[in-house]
Amino acid sequence: MKISTILQQDKIHVSCEIFPPKQSGKLQQTEEVVKELAAVHPDFISVTYGAGGSTKANTVRLADIVQKHGIPALAHLTCVSSTQEMVRDTLAELRQNHIENVLALRGDLPQDGNVPVQQQYRYASELVCEIRSQGDFCIGAACYPEGHVESTSREEDIAHLKEKVECGCDFLTTQMFFDNNVFYSFLYRILAKDIRVPVVAGVMPVTNARQIARICALSGAALPPRFSNMADRFANDPASMRQAGIAYATEQIIDLISNGVRAIHLYTMNQPDVALKIFENISEIIK
Ligand code: FAD
Fold first, then answer.
1. Catalytic residue IDs
2. What are phi and psi of 111, to 5 degrees?
3. Is the CB of 171 under 6 A from ligand 1?
4. Percentage of residues in the chain with pLDDT exceeding 70?
5. Ligand 1 centroid from CA 158, angstroms
6. By the 8 A CB rule, do 246 and 11 touch?
7. What total number of domains does the chain contain?
8. Does ligand 1 lie within 6 Å of residue 242's CB atom?
9. What does the alpha-carbon distance between residue 262 and residue 47 come to, in Å, rounded to a whole number?
10. How buried is 137 (Cβ within 10 angstroms: 0-12 exposed, 13-18 middle, 19+ buried)?
11. Are 157 and 148 in contact (CB under 8 A)?
12. 19 CB under 6 A from ligand 1?
């Protein structure tokens, strides 16, 4: 089913994200993750795309596995290291596997020179146009409540977001954020620019203090004092950090839903136990 159709349903939507293994031999292990997640019926499961297309085949295969477990799949697709032919081949594979939802991304610019940057697509908006020209896909794209790390201002980032949406996005998923006020203010700012597609709020339960530095570097997410205090207090106590991280994400989600947000995306990656705990914590709220 198309995610645009799912998001129109009168309910609270909760989705999850998983990543494919680099080696095909490990797909079976990841299928176990899908099975566990499918048991709590997320509205959809998104499958990431390795930097530079490193997991291309497994992204499609894993998205197919997700759908075979009865859950709509959202296949991520990046373009900065792809030619038009590569993109069109991947879209054809997705179509063959009846995967109709694609998250159109630029991808991070490679730092190490191992992955080539092709000249064909510079921005995700160009990929959105390409996907639109290749059939009846439901297209999602990324957005950044705190501004994308490369953009000089939030205003400039929102102007580019508007161009991307106008190329044909059906919905947006946010980068993770740890302060809901940042998200609420973003919603007002995009509405002021007449960006009206549904926005899925990305929440990451941080269950391991070692994740934090990497998260901040990649996403530029600001850490509110309440979050930093928690991380400092439990950094060396993994069991407590896990419990506190899940509680923090649960509170964030309850606040979002209380304020009228209707779609939440859990960045629980391949940790079904964390996703399941959060689903349990909010089971009455989303039923
Ligand atoms: P864009 O929308 O192209 O934006 C990138 C930058 O370019 C922004 O600063 C924007 O303001 C600027 N820009 C856009 N258009 C123009 C223009 N016309 N002129 C000048 N500047 C412009 N990465 C992966 O490798 N695999 C994944 O599976 C993956 N999944 C993700 C899922 C989500 C929900 C999110 C939020 C991110 C994901 N990423 C993933 C990371 C993403 O690839 C990076 O954040 C990347 O740096 C930007 O991708 P984008 O699609 O947002 O790019």
1. 17
2. -95, -30
3. no
4. 98
5. 12
6. no
7. 1
8. no
9. 21
10. buried
11. yes
12. no
Q: Which residue has the tokens 């998983």?
A: 18
- pLDDT tens for 224-247 read 999 999 999 999 999 999 999 999
d(CA 245, CA 204): 9
Q: Is residue 287 part of a domain?
A: no
pLDDT digits (tens, 9 = 90+) for 246-281: 999 999 999 999 999 999 999 998 999 999 999 999
Residue 163 Cα to ligand 1 middle (Å): 13
> Is there a domain that residue 143 lies in?
yes
pLDDT of residue 173: 98
Range of the domain at 47: 3-281
118 part of a folded domain: yes
Q: Whose CA is nearest to atom 33 of ligand 1?
A: 142
pLDDT value of residue 19? 96
Q: Residue 93 belongs to a domain with what CATH number?
A: 3.20.20.220
Q: For residue 286, tell me if it sits in a domain.
A: no
Which pair of tokens denotes residue 95?
């179509």
